[in-house]
Amino acid sequence: MTDVQHAPPAARPRPRSRPPKPIHHPSVAERAAKGKAARDVAPRSAHGDWRPAAGRRDPVELLGEQDASRVPELVPVRYGRMLVSPFTFYRGAAYLMAADLAGEPRTGLQVQLCGDAHLSNFGAFAAPDRRLIFSINDFDETLPGPFEWDVKRLVASFAVAGRDRGFGDHERHRINRAVARSYRTAMHEYAGMSNLDVWYARIDLDDIAVVTAERGTSKQRKAFERNVAKARSKDSTRALAKLTEVVDGELRIVREPPLIVPIEDIATGIQREEVERFVHTVIRSYRRTLTADRRRLLERYRYVHAARKVVGVGSVGTRAWVVLMLGRDDTDPLVLQLKEAQASVLEPFLGESAFANPGQRVVEGQRLTQAASDILLGWVRFTAPDGVSRDFYIRQLWDGKGSALVELMDPTVMELYAELCGQVLAKAHARSGDAIAIAGYLGGGESFDRAMASFAELYADQNERDYDVVRAAVASGRVAAQTDL
């Protein structure tokens, strides 16, 4: 982030101007028939089977391919976080699962995939009207593809999480079925809505509170209320209090290596003025990706400081920065996160993104699938100190963000959460894909639900085998792992 040799990115050749293709609008009956016809190519019951393909690649080799483009000193931290448990391993193994799904039959019913739709990538955040809503909140791997890839990733994540929590076979099966059933029934509901109603549909936390009050215990209701209060408090003001300190009379992001490293510790040998000029250049480039009204808002803040910050599990090693800006005074902060965007893990199997900038791929995918996105969502490309051009997407670090505490869930709570995630995923797919065709494929019975529940447990077995392989690689010295806990 600190290279002052800021050069414009090499642009793809501009295609010749062509008249737009006419858009075909099939009837409702034709769309439903398309979905039912997809059962001939990928029978619903076929999704319930899973076995590793002959010659399946070594998971250590696949993960190692991702290491090559990451910050070397942070790669061991990534493995340390992944190997805490099979569940944390699953969170960081989206590439492994994409490689596995590539050999499975496909429905051909395309949506904008989340690409990494595990249960911890769903959560609460503040919509532009400041109400808390619940949706998918991670789009690093988003790409168009067959809808069932997201569903399989989601259902399997509940199987893995259920095992992590020590749930029995019957409890996990009920939870797995709940995910698929919720997705199927919600898709039928969206298939019956008008286009605008689908587009505007969203799930408020107030709606979830009603369900929690009806079906949860007193203890569960109180836990939900505490989590909502915590999410409401997560904003730039709290980030300022948690992440900064005063040094020589100036606000500075705290130093906690290797997890938080101030920009001056990385940009060694470069004058502070040069660093600041470069950061201002980056901010100006990012500003151009915002709408005019939001550019005006951003212009009211001035740059103060920046630091590299380790985030997530699978993202560890990719470059992520936090940028502190101030508005009218020191009590009016804006904390932005710049997160490196690389090619989606799905691209080797589903084809290259239509966007030359992976940061734009993430932003456009998020805007397409979320009912309400961060108003400061944008992207940028700049040249790093090693001379490599890298792409980033930018958003507010905290904007009412909240995540479910999986480690505290009992079977009842996890089943409620499973239903919620299934509904949210269906909403995202209905916005970007053909809800009528997908509903036609899913049908009104439970064939799809049963298949997904079966797949989830079989793939959870595979996840445990891969976890053991990588753990053995660490024990043998083939892979380095470092805990940061």
List keywords for this structure.
485 residues; alpha+beta; 2 domains; six-stranded antiparallel beta sheet; four-stranded antiparallel beta sheet; 14 strands; 47% helix
Topology:
Elements: H1 28-41, H2 59-67, H3 75-82, H4 86-91, H5 94-101, E1 110-113, E2 122-126, E3 132-136, E4 143-146, H6 147-164, H7 169-191, H8 195-200, E5 203-204, H9 205-215, H10 218-233, H11 236-243, E6 244-247, E7 250-253, E8 260-262, H12 263-266, H13 272-287, H14 292-298, E9 302-309, E10 320-326, E11 333-340, H15 347-350, H16 358-369, E12 378-383, E13 389-396, E14 402-403, H17 411-432, H18 435-442, H19 447-476
Antiparallel strand pairs: 1-4, 2-3, 2-14, 3-5, 6-7, 8-9, 9-10, 10-11, 11-13, 12-13
Helix pairs in contact: 1-18, 6-7, 6-17, 6-19, 7-17, 7-18, 7-19, 9-10
Task: State the distance separating the first and last CA atoms.
Answer: 27 Å
Total discrete domains: 2
Structural category is alpha+beta
General form: globular
Rg computed from alpha carbons, rounded to a whole number of angstroms: 23 Å
Share in β-strands: 5-15%
Quickly count the helices.
19
Main beta sheet strand tally, sense and closure: 6 strands, antiparallel
Strand order of the largest sheet: 8-9-10-11-13-12
Number of strands: 14
Instruction: Kindly report the average pLDDT value.
Output: 91
Give the structure's gist in a few sentences.
This protein has two domains: 28-233 and 402-476, no CATH class; 236-396, no CATH class. The chain is built from 19 helices and 14 strands.
Describe this structure in words.
By secondary structure, this protein is of the alpha+beta class. The chain has 2 domains: 28-233 and 402-476, no CATH class; 236-396, no CATH class. The protein is 47% helix and 14% strand. The protein is built from 19 helices and 14 strands. Helix 7 packs parallel to helix 17 (411-432), helix 7 (169-191) crosses helix 19 (447-476) and helix 9 runs antiparallel to helix 10. The relative contact order is 0.22. Residues 2-9 have low confidence and may be disordered.
